[in-house]
Amino acid sequence: MDRIRIDRLKADLRELRLKNMAEALDEAIQTAHDQQSGHLEFLSTLIDIQKTAMQQRSVDRRIKQANFPRNMSFDNFDWHFQPELNIEQLKDLKSLGFIEQRRRLLIFGKTGVGKTHIATALGIEACKVGFRVRFFKFQELLSFLYATLADDATDEAIVKLSRLDLVIIDHVGYIRQKNEYPSLLLDFVCA
Q1: Secondary-structure class of domain 74-190 per CATH
Q2: 3-class secondary structure, 167
């Protein structure tokens, strides 16, 4: 193999921001040589590697931007923790049809029954399929909206939030009261 040409090709791939292709190049060349693959199959393999890595980075970025409290996915969900849980209904919710239909979903229950885990897991599933998601504790949302009053950016903030595909509001319990909270919440819900 022509090591100088391969190293230059790797550098060019990195310059083109195709670092996953650059990292997989040596192995892909060796595999293509061993299997006597054609040029198109070799190129297709490299493109698939880059595409998969880009898609994973996109999912990771959406999950990070969603601001979930911690990684609570369906992979680490204890399906038998709550005997009263309607597992079939929850598995139906995993299809995320409620997001596509722009319907609200309310999850009720006592403290410690897994509401946050379910909401976060649904949010992570939504991120995986390309939806834009944001997780808020109720007090955080109200405080955020209240803070926008200082620089008259409330309308802009509400519009930005309303463009999200899914907004998860958790910990709706005791709220520190401010006179502006009800109208801010109403504006947000109406948007």
Answers
A1: alpha beta
A2: strand
